[in-house]
Amino acid sequence: MSAPASRTRIGARAIVRRFGPVIANDGIDFAAAPGTIHAIVGGNGAGKSTLMRILQGVDRPDDGSVILDDREVRLTAPADAFARGIGMVHQEFMLVDELTLLENLILAREPVHAGGVIDRRKALAEAERVAAMAGVTLDWQMRVADAPVHIRQILEILRLLYRGADVLILDEPTAVLAPAQVRELIGLMRRLKAEGRTILFISHKLDEVMNAADAITVIRRGRAIATVVPGETSKAKLSEMMVGEPIELPLVHPAAPHAGVPVLAIDTLVAHDGRGLPRLGPITLNLYPGEIVGIAGVAGNGQDELAAAAAGLGQIDAGSIRMDGRDITRARTGSFRDLGIAYLSADRAGDGLCLAASIRDNFIAGSEHAPPFSQSGLLRLRAIREGARRALDTLSVRYGAMGDPAKSLSGGNQQRVAIAREFERKPRVLIAAQPTRGVDIAGIAFIHRQIVAFRDAGGAVLLISEELDEILSLSDRIVGLYGGRITGELDRSGASVERVGRLMLGEKAA
Amino acid sequence: MIRAALANLAAAALPFVLALAIGAIVLAVTGHDPISVYALMASEAFGGTRRIAATLTATTPLLLTGLATAIAFRAGVFNVGIEGCFYLGGLAAATLGFWLVGWPAIAIIPVALLAGALIGGAWMVAPATLKVRLGVDEVVTTLMLNFIAINLTSWLVNGPLLARGSANSATPAIEKAAELPRLLPPSTLHLGFIISLALVILYGFWDRFTVTGFRSRLVGLNARFCRAVGIDVPSLLFRMMILSGLIGGLAGAIHALGLVHRFVAGFSPGYGFTGIAVALLGRNSALGMILAALVFGALASSGATIQLFSDVPIEIVEVLQGTVMIFAVAKLGLLLRDRRGLA
Asked: How far is A344 from chain B (nearest CA, A)?
């Protein structure tokens, strides 16, 4: 920080990174001045994460280079980037739950007495020093498992300070925070900036970016579209740059008012997440044939658990799920599917697809035991080949060969394979979680049309999305989810960005 | 398609080539001529019908222990308990082989083989249940069960099942009718080789053309995904572990009826563990495992005689075996790929 001021503390020059057929970064340029908060905004799949991985030395560009202190550098490993003062806080925190905040802080850089015993007193003094520097106070003896999420995030930032980082890359740091905590975080960022540190603030929340950043670089489809100053732009202009041309919204006909019995009825359901923490409920929600119900909420407010429960994958504590009036709360996932519930997972690489398996195998997975794909336990390879070709063509999936692994496809085409697989089962209910995450604009419009066509044919859709535009343009009803509970419901006609936004933030619909 | 097959073959051959290179260094350092030693080994393993028969005899148990391991591995279960199943299957088959006096071959052989397979499968019920119900790591349980199986069988042949008047820890010899027929007398090659080969080939078909084969491969690649598309993952893992144990038990039974003709303490020189290397080296594919089992079989059969004809100690063969195993486990393909990234 005492070094002669450079014009660019960290930046990129024409960085290109390809993954098979997918171009994640297509010649990205940007430059962050020292002692500033530089925001990088862009939609999901725009190429932000790849760029950050490159800046952090985890990944290497195919072409172009990273700029540090006005010079081109070649980062060979994260340790290399770290030695040059660059540290990153990932969306998924890298903390050891069983250890205390203090232990996590000093992990891998423990102050020791002679003989290798940890010097606790010195560790605590160091911890207090970085905390004071950042203007925060923490209970250092608390275990991370017991710490609320914003404390964990502050701890991650302090850990970078403890290790001497002066460029902090924060990847969507506000995604998991409540509004008051967001303000707190932005205050912390400003204090760090005042000390001369440089912050790269990755986000797609334009309010926060406009509020906190000194400069904003917009990334779209792997390119840096523009770098602007908040005072000279507006949220509308930014979002226009992020999206490119205005999205052509699929024509949504107002659905017929729900008649008769719900096809899927969720009643006072309570569920927990994979770590056993209560996340959802109690929640009551009915889904009728021929409607799209949009679930609006900030990530981490129970959407994942709701989607999992509705798809037969949930960890349910109480309440019930009924399909056509039949209780399936404790039924196996296979029964959910056999009754006509289809699922597009938000975690495409995790349980949405098997990326290592072939496109064909992904297409028949879950239907491999029944005609036409098999008979008496034997696969019918020809029927599989023909069925897959027909279904993939219907969805205009662009693939090389059907035996290629699914990971060779672009994000949009991967999702089309998942849709092809789910629609092949002729479902009556579709659970669509973040259906267009990581999909390009053309793909988004296509997927939206598929969802609407499914609805028009009498299907019921539970649409869970963090994209407000998506929720607003597709949903017949919009339900807000906050802290695992429903905050309110809006009709299509009564919905607006502001009103849905309030629902997402836990304020009751007025 | 052909290019991919060649690449696979090269990837599978690479560990063996590297092992030969390291073995050559060891030989040269200890004052031997690597080329002449390797030539001697090759002729000991494949030079003439009798030598080939000996190699195939040595290959037989490895085909099945490799197969047993691969069935678990491809479903993502790291079952290292085949050694134990091999002991138990061998003991069960040998015991029935000398108990069922007067039974015709057509009855006694199937019954004894079936018993061996069943006890191997039953041996896996506990670790499979623990894994599926409680999430207990199968590596620990199956590895520990090996020691129990080895010591349990050792105790049995030193006590209740000890052959009368025998000083060794061995059961009585099995009935003549229980012995698997020899294929090429006077060599020891027996019907078990054909059975084992047939089962591995059958596995190849199962792998490609059956619903269960498809499912277990997919579960091995991504179990979470399989759960989400409605496949009953715990049940599948359970069945694959039992099947793996059945084959492991059968391997021991065939070894007892085909070659040893009784059960003795120290029944297996680590066939179950070599099976792990066979499965890894063969990438769980039928053809790959047949080749890998042949490699280890050839090393074993040539190693046995090589020290008779040269001053090369048998340990060099063990060095070679160990090196092949190490390189088989290492993902050499990754190494090649990484170098591109670092350039």
From this structure: 10
Q: How far is A415 from chain B (nearest CA, A)?
A: 14
User: Do the Cβ atoms of A358 and A415 come closer than 8 Å?
Assistant: no
| Inter-chain Cβ pairs, chain A and chain B, closer than 8 A | 74
Is A67's pLDDT higher than 50? yes
Identify the structural domains of chain A with CATH numbers, from first to last: 10-243 (3.40.50.300), 247-340+427-510 (3.40.50.300), 355-425 (no CATH)
ipTM of this predicted complex? 0.85
Across the interface, do A365 and B231 touch by the CB < 8 Å criterion?
A: yes
Provide the pLDDT for residue B340.
37
Interface contact flag, B230 A355, Cβ < 8 Å:
no
- The amino acid that residue A433 corresponds to is A
- What's the total number of domains in chain B? 1
SS3 state at A23:
strand
- Measured between CA atoms, the residue of chain B closest to residue A337 is B230
For residue B338, give both structure tokens.
């990484």
A353 touches chain B (CB under 8 A): yes
Residue A58 identity: V
- The type of residue at A483 is G
Rounded Cα distance, A105 and B25, in Å: 48
pLDDT digits (tens, 9 = 90+) for A194-204: 989 999 998 87
The parent domain of residue B100 ranges over 2-342
Chain A segment 360-419 residues within 8 A of B by beta carbon are 361, 364-366, 368-369, 374, 377-379, 381
pTM, two decimal places: 0.77
Q: Is B211–A368 a contact, with Cβ atoms under 8 angstroms apart?
A: yes
Question: Position A395: which residue type?
Answer: L
Q: Among all chains, which residue has been given the structure tokens 């949504």? A: A252
CATH number at residue B98: 1.10.3470
